[in-house]
Each structure stands twice: as structure tokens, then as C-alpha cells.
Write a structure and sequence with these properties.
The chain is of the alpha+beta class. It has one domain: Alpha-Beta Plaits, CATH 3.30.70.100. The chain contains 3 helices and 4 strands; from the N terminus they run E-H-E-E-H-H-E. A 4-stranded antiparallel β-sheet has the order 2-3-1-4. The longest helix is centred in the N-terminal third of the chain and has 21 residues. The two termini are about 15 Å apart.
Length: about 100
């Protein structure tokens, strides 16, 4: 398993709205085209309306690399990057967990 959390900070409300539109399309395509992507969950940060957090879990590093190189993901990055003031990526090492 390979996992990461990504935080995106949008420029303003208009940028956040456009980011959300792009996210809907990207998540749909990820679900349809990426069997190695096990979880791709997106959230708005409570109390920070311009911040978004993605939690991503892949079967393995190869599945992550396939995700990053997919045309729909490269296009998402290209379109979203001008909307942002910051991006923070944290790669995760699995620890104790409960899964139901």
C-alpha cells in the first residue's frame, strides 16, 4: 500500500469553485480508469473555505506512478495549478488503524 495526503490552498473563492469543478471531473475519471487507486477522497477543510485536502491510497508505488502519469491527472494538474497559492504533499507510512 502507498498513501499520501495533499493540501491545496486556493487563491480566492472563484479559484476554489473552479478547483472543485475540476476535482469532480478528475475523481470520476480516476474511479473509472485507475484500478490501482484504492481510495481517492477529497475534502474541504472545516473553517478554511479556500483549503482542500485529498487523501489518496494506492495498491503500491507503481499504481501511484500510473496515476501521476495518466493523461486525465496531468490535465487536472495543468488546469488547477494556476488556481493555487500553495500545495503541500505528505507521503504516509502506515501505522495502527481500524478498518471496517
Amino acid at each position: 500500500m502507498f498513501a499520501l495526503v495533499v493540501r491545496f490552498d486556493c487563491r480566492d473563492e472563484a479559484a476554489a469553485a473552479r478547483f472543485d469543478e475540476l476535482t469532480v471531473s478528475a475523481v470520476r475519471q480516476i474511479g473509472e480508469r485507475e484500478p490501482g487507486t484504492l481510495v481517492y477522497a477529497t475534502s474541504v477543510v472545516d473553517g478554511e473555505p479556500l483549503a482542500r485536502v485529498f487523501y489518496e491510497v494506492y495498491r503500491d508505488r507503481d499504481a501511484f506512478e500510473a496515476h501521476e502519469n495518466a493523461e486525465h491527472v496531468r490535465r487536472f494538474h495543468e488546469l488547477k495549478n494556476p488556481l493555487l497559492t500553495a500545495t503541500r504533499v505528505e507521503f504516509l507510512e502506515p501505522g495502527p488503524a481500524v478498518q471496517r
